[in-house]
Amino acid sequence: MRVLFAPETFNLGETSRGVEVARRMRADGHEVIVCGYSTRFSGHVTDAGLPLELLEPRLSEADADRLLAVDQGRAVRHPFTVDMLRRRVRSELDLMDEWRPDVVVIGSTMSTFVSARAAGIPLVYVKPYAMSRGHLSSMSDFPVVAGRGRLATAANAVAGRTIRTVGQRLTYLPGAFRAVAAEHGVCLPPTTLEALDGDLNLIASLPPALEPLPLGPRDEVIGPVYSRTAGELPQEVHALTATGRPVVYVGMGSSARRDLVLAVLEAVGALDVEIVSGAGRYLTDADRRRLPRSVVMTDFIPAHRLAGLVDASVTHGGEGTVQTACVSGAPFAGIGLQAEQRWNIRQCELAGHALPFTARQLRRGELPGIVDRLLRDPRLREAARKVRDRAAAIDGPAAASRAIAALAG
C-alpha cells in the first residue's frame, strides 16, 4: 500500500513520530512519502532516507515560532489565514491526486483534516494521550498552572472539570477552516473534537500502554514512538563515562528558549557531574564559550543511544523527550512549558521515577538539589529501571504499522 505522511515539520517530536512510523512501514514493505511545510526539522526526514516533498506555501521561521507559542499557551494568534489554508489544502490535494495514497498519516497538521476528507482518503492521526478524547472525557484536573501549591492545585482542578465538561460540547473552529472546507464540499463534524479526529487515532504514549486509561471511540493505543535516528554519539560522550563522575543529560526538545537552556545548564553545572546536551541550537557561540568545561554540547544528539550511559536527565516534558528518558532507565527532572508537558511529567512522577520543577524553583536555585536527589535516591532509580523494562516490551512503530495497514486494507 501507499502511505502519505504529513507531520508538521517545524515540531521535532511530531516529525520524529512520523519518521519512526514511516520507517517501520517501509520495512514492512509499504511505499511511503513524507510531506511538510517547514525546513526546520525536515532534515530528520531525509536523514532517515525517506522521500520528502516540501509543499507551498512554506512555513517561515517566524510563523513556526508563532505556532509553538500558541501550542504553549503564550499566544492566541496563529498564521492560518483563509489564503494560507486554501493554498495548503490545494497543495495537499495536488500531491494526493498525483501520488494516490491509500491512507494519510498526520500529526497536528490542521489543513489535512480538510484535504484528506475532500479526497476521500482514510486519515490516521498519531498523537499523544494528553488532550485526546479519552483524556478529555475523564480528566479530574489539568495542570494549566505549574507547581503543587494550594492555589495551583485548586486552579488545575477547576481547569480539569471545565475542560471535561466544555470540551465535549465545544463547536469552535477558526472561520478559515470552515470557509476552506466549504469550498471543497467538506462538511466538518459539529464539535471541535470530532472535527479534529482521524478515522483512526493512534495513541503514541506510554501511560495507556502500561495502565489502562479511558479511550475515545476511534482511539487505539500503540505505545511510545520516539526518535531513534541513525548516527552515533559524539566520541566525547563516551569519554565522559571514563571520568567516574555521574553523567546528566539535558534535553529541551524543540519548544524551549535560550534563557531557559542557559539557566538549566548553569544550575546542573554547579554539581560535580558531567553534562551532555543536544540543545546547542538555542545557544550562540558566545554562550557556548561560557559553558562549564563539563558540558558536551551539540545541536542534536541521538538521545536513545544514551541509555546505560546517563545517570539522570533534565527535560522540558515533551512527549518524545519523556519517552526517551523512560527507556533510558534513569530518573529525570522535568520543567513543563505547557499543560500537556506538565501532564507527561506528572504521570512519570506518579510512576515514581521523575521529579517536577518549576521556573520559580529554577530561579531560586533549587534545581541542583533536585538533580542530586535523582542521582542518590534508590527508590527513584529502581522505579526508573522498572519502567524501562516494561517499556522495552512495547514496539510502538510496529503496532502503528499494523493498525494503519488494517485500516487501509
TrEMBL record:
Entry's transmembrane regions: none
Residue span(s) of domain Erythromycin biosynthesis protein CIII-like C-terminal: 264-402
A GO molecular-function annotation: glycosyltransferase activity
Family matches, as InterPro entries: EryCIII-like_C
Listed name of the protein: Erythromycin biosynthesis protein CIII-like C-terminal domain-containing protein
